[in-house]
């Protein structure tokens, strides 16, 4: 008999990192660590747990980089394989909160961009939807403008992908849409608008500037060729968040 070929090796599943930060071994810390362990057992195939003691000098760089040195302890932080922080739970948490930190691929990409002070166009389309090309025309004109290019990410989502349905529902986008939709979002996740069908760069710019400093805003232009010195972008996106939060 001819020997059968061995089945192809399965690609390793990229896992989330779940960090348990603590400062002591108090009863509260031990109780919440038990909660953490329970969640990690349920998510063992998708999660890589790690315990971080804030009093350990070897962890100082990590603690400062993640900005948790002054957070209430204990604390759990979930980090996606692409480096996006998907959730942080300081002080008190339960298994449901921890397990709810898992996101969809598009959500991970979007949060990563937000955390890098970037805007996101979430382009929802596939071979079934209409006006696909027209839907991204204005998006790419916006993206290719030197004023915005360094601060913009374009993320595509297939509305028929069941793994993305939860994220689309959060954005009030119907996965059964028959027309391509572009969602325009700014940090930390503010939806400036949902645009079914064709997009127009001028309309997108208007939504952005009116939500920030007004029609004469130069915040993004001032950061066009340099790093975000002085937190200009953070302040700009903060204004947008405040404006839309009042609606």
Can you walk me through this structure?
The protein is of the alpha/beta class. It has two domains: 16-99, 3-Layer(aba) Sandwich (Glutaredoxin); 105-245, Glutaredoxin. 35% of the residues lie in helices and 20% in strands. The strands form two sheets. Strands 2-1-3-4 form a four-stranded mixed β-sheet. A hairpin with a 5-residue loop joins strand 3 and strand 4 (85-90). The radius of gyration is 21 Å and the shape is globular. Mean pLDDT is 88; it is low at 1-11.
Please indicate the count of domains: 2
**Total beta strands:** 8
Task: Please give the share of residues in helix.
Answer: 25-40%
Low-confidence spans: pLDDT under 50, at least 5 residues?
1-11
CATH level-two architecture of the largest domain: 3-Layer(aba) Sandwich
Q: Which fold name is given in CATH as the topology of the largest domain?
A: Glutaredoxin
Intertermini distance: 73 Å
Structural class, by secondary structure, is alpha/beta
